[in-house]
# Entry
Amino acid sequence: MRVVADFHLHSHYSQATSKDLTLQNLEKYGRMKGLTLLGTGDLTHPKWLSDIRPLLSEGDGILRTAEGFSFVLSGEISLIYSQGGRGRRIHLVLLAPGFRAAERIQETLGKFGRLDYDGRPIFGKSCPEVVEALKSADERIEVIPAHIWTPWFSLFGSRSGFDSVEECFQDTAKHIFALETGLSSDPAMNWRLSALDKYTLVSNSDAHSHWPWRLGRECNILELGELTYDAFIHALRTRKGFIETLEFWPHEGKYHYDGHRSCGVCLAPAESAKGTCPKCGQPLTIGVASRVEELADRPEGFRPEGAVPFRNLIPLHELLAGAIGQAVSTKAVWAAYSPLVKAFGNELSVLLDAEERELAKLASPEAVRLILANRGQKIPFAPGYDGVYGVPDFTAILGRDGKAQAPPTARPAQRRLGEY
# Structure
C-alpha cells in the first residue's frame, strides 16, 4: 500500500501554533493535501495525549480515527546543554508504538523536567543521556534528529551544533538510523557529506498550523505491504519500500543563505566569507548552504548509491496566490484551490499528476503555467535567510505584466529532479 507520511508536526499545545490545530483538523486537511499518515505531534504533553486518546483506536502501533485515517504518535523535544566547551541546542523527533510507549516516554522525560508547559519541552540533558533513557524505557521508540541544519537548534547547526552524528550522540549513535533534512536543505545537499550515506533522509513539515500550505509541505512516500508501526520504522531504517520524499525548495526555507534580518542582508556562501554584516558589522546568521559547504567532502551534483529520490515542490496555495496576486489565505485563492482538489482528489495529485488539458478546464492560464513550471523545477527564488522565508519569483514565469510581484534579489533555483 502507498503511504504518504508527514510525521513531524505540532498540536495547539506547542508555542506559536494555531489554536485550531486539533486532531480533527489534521485529518481533514491531511486528506485534502493527499497525506495518508500523520504524526500526532506533542506526545509528551499530558493534556494532548488525553485529548486524542478517545478519538483513536490502536492496532499494530498505528492509531486510526473512526473514519479510518492513520496517525503515529510523535513529538519533538529540545535539549539545551554544554559539551566540548560550547552550548548545544538540539531538537529530536520521537516516534512511539502506541499509547503505552508514549506514557513510558512521559515517565522517562518527566524525571528530567516539566512536560505540561509546552508541546515541545526543553530539557538540560545531553543527546546520549536522553537516547539511552528512552531506549531503556522501550526499545521500539524511534529517535530522529530534527531539521539537522537549522542554525539555532539542530545537529549540524552553525550556532549550536556538532560536526558529526558520532560527536553528538557518542555511544548512542548506534540507535540513530534516520535524519530529518529540514526546510532549508534537501537530500541533494546532504548527499555532499559521505558520512551521511548510511542514514535515511526523511522530510516533514514541522507544521505549526493545519493549513495545506503548511501541512505536508514536506513528506515521505513509501510502499508497504501493510501499515504497521514496525513496517513503517523498518522502511525508515532500511529504505526498503521508501519511494521518495517531497521537499520544500531549500531556497524557500528560512535559513538557506547567510544573512542579517535587521539590515535586510542576504548573502550566498561565497559572498559572506567574513561572517559579519556589511552594513552594521554584527555577526551574520550562517545559513544551511554555508554550513553544508563547510562540512562537505563531495561536489554539488553527487548522488550516492542507494539514495532515495526526491522532488521539490511549492505548495499549491502559494502558486495560486502568485497567479491571482493575493495572499495564500484569501477567499479568492481558496476559490481557485477547492475545484482543483475536488476534481483531482487531493493537492498532491494536482501538483504531480494532473494533465495540462485537464488543469486548463478548472484553472486560469496563469495558474496552469505556474503548476507546470513548479513540476518542472523552473521557478527561481529570493533565498530565505536569518528567519525570513524565501520568496518564489513567479514573474519569471508569468512575465512582468502579470499580477505576481517579483521579489528582491531573486536567484535561479532550477535543477533537474533530484539534483542540487
Observations:
- The CA atoms of residues 157 and 180 lie 13 Å apart.
- The domain at 2-252 is CATH 3.20.20.140 (TIM Barrel).
